[in-house]
Recover the amino acids of this structure.
């Protein structure tokens, strides 16, 4: 990012570009609680590694993290070393839906990557074995990195996911059939659904993402994962973090990103910024319409890209 670009100026341009499109897309109504979210909302926040935070719109409205939690559970598992998880999940883009049963069966119960549903379930299974409480481990990390000690799951959303989560059960039991689950499937899915149901604001999400922007260094200055592990997590975000639209995001945005069907997108500028965009309306791939547009605009205005 050019040093002569002011964040306030960049955010002004983002809002001007996004405003006419707020409300576009379709909320994730296959999870009933998410289907009740007002689509006419938009929040955007940028946090810098030196402590500056700028935001606009509905940046302090809470929303469901959903798949964005997968980045942080992966970081927690990587504390045990780089080879701790990679025998159970691959690192390739899927090119298929994030909950594809066909691909998982064809590849003998080994998920394509940790940022689609079966891969994240395996990571949660691993984290449960490491900590004894995968949900609590993730919640503690996010509370510390956001600075919000009250951050928690929304129990109504968690219950909604539990009641409508048959596809995730099918994925987990299929992996268990191939010997790629170590804990009881119902217990793992309980942690997984509660993890996805954690609520956060765009401002908090931007602060949490600084863990990666600082190459694995936490808000308190301690190192959580080594620089190589952080770099590789961001590489997986770039190639796999936006479902089967990762190539388009690399082309348009040029940053490591992770989206969630709650409408959030986390993007990282290594060594400089963590960016959070939120708009509940999703495109056909499951990514926020306004979030993608905002990030595209931000990187164009600032010339901020890893390429």
């Amino acid at each position: 990012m050019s040093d002569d670009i002011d964040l306030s100026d960049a955010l002004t341009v983002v809002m001007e570009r996004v405003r006419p499109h707020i409300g576009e897309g379709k909320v994730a109504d296959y999870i009933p609680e998410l289907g009740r979210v007002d689509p006419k909302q938009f929040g955007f926040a940028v946090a810098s590694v030196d402590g500056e935070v700028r935001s606009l719109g509905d940046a302090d409205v809470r929303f469901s993290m959903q798949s964005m939690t997968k980045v942080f559970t992966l970081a927690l598992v990587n504390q045990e070393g780089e080879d701790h998880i990679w025998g159970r999940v691959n690192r390739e883009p899927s090119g298929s839906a994030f909950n594809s049963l066909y691909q998982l069966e064809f590849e003998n119960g080994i998920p394509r990557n940790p940022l689609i549903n079966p891969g994240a379930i395996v990571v949660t299974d691993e984290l449960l074995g490491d900590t004894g409480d995968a949900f609590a481990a993730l919640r503690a990390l996010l509370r510390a990195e956001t600075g919000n000690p009250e951050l928690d799951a929304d129990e109504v959303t968690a219950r909604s996911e539990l009641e409508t989560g048959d596809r995730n059960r099918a994925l987990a039991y299929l992996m268990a059939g191939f010997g790629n689950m170590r804990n009881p499937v119902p217990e793992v899915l309980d942690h997984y659904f509660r993890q996805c149901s954690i609520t956060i604001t765009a401002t908090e999400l931007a602060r949490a993402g600084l863990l990666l922007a600082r190459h694995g260094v936490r808000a308190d200055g301690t190192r959580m994962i080594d620089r190589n592990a952080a770099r590789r997590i961001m590489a997986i975000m770039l190639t796999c973090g936006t479902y089967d639209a990762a190539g388009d995001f690399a082309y348009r945005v040029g940053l490591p990103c992770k989206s969630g069907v709650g409408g959030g997108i986390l993007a990282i500028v290594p060594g400089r910024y963590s960016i959070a965009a939120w708009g509940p309306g999703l495109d056909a791939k499951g990514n926020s319409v306004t979030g993608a547009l905002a990030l595209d605009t931000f990187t164009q205005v600032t010339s901020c890209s890893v390429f």
